[in-house]
Amino acid sequence: MRLTLAVVILNYNTADLLGKYLPSVVKYSDQAEIVFVDNCSTDHSVRYVEENYPQIRIIKLDRNYGFTGGYNKALQHVKADCYCLLNSDVEVTPGWTEPLLRMMQDDDSIAACQPKLLSYCEKNKFEYAGAAGGYMDYLGYPFCAGRVFNNIEEDRGQYNEPREVFWASGAALVVRSELFHRFGGLDERFFAHMEEIDLCWRLKNAGYKICYNPESVVYHLGGGTLNKTSSRKTYLNFRNNLLLLHKNLPEKEKTKVFLVRAFLDFIAATVFLLQFKPSETKAVWTAHKDFRKMKKLYYGQISTVGEYPSCVCFRSIVFAAWISGKKCFNQLLDYIK
Q1: What's the CATH code of the domain at 153?
Q2: What is the pTM of this model?
Q3: Mean pLDDT, residues 44-55 taken together
Q4: Distance of CA 216 to the CA centre of its chain
């Protein structure tokens, strides 16, 4: 029996994006229900959808619950075999849902997958937030096939084979609804950033696979809610990355990993200061301080899995990229298991 799909778009004050990106979703997602979830926007985005796309179901939330809470609350009211969590700044292409659903249909062990994410602004290049599937090094630094730190590769067909990955991008994440709810959805304490990595890691620790399918292609603008240089984004990325490690790392690795991370994060904060970005430095220190306060909230929710799951890089990508000059994904393959 064919899997059903709901394409769920979480919105917060993105009225200026909807006229550009929503038409492709409506045109090319005819096999799916489209659900527009509004995080209590103050612009005219809801009115725009109501007036132009009456076929789209709208769920209005009473306040801004962030990426995590917004999706968790809305998806309690959406019925489908699979959800696609789709950013409001994504342009999709003809037939984009078919390869993703077929991949999920053919293999019950796949919990989630993503399409090939290319840049909306430079369509021959991968997009930062997901590219050709997400990976992580053993210290918790996420990267992608097609993007290592800020080095973004041109798409030359080098990642045109479907494969298992560590995490699928929240910009266009297809996940089985039953597993999403069984594993508690997105961690609402994260609010935004790295919540999809946390969900994927929990699913992988339970024995499921996360995959990438290049037969499906979408174009992502990126940075639609928080600017890349936002100190708020820096804070969330550092804090949530520490929470991610605390929740999911094998217990025997924690002492070593957190010692190394403390050193590397100190270096990052110092670099921000030398670049005359004191708000970014403060964001790193505040992230560590708040992480120490939040650790106790996860009592009884820590993974007991004894090993890293598959698709982890067992060399620090900080040293690989900045010391050894290995800034392309294919240069790291020997270190990934």
Answers
A1: 3.90.550.10
A2: 0.96
A3: 98
A4: 17
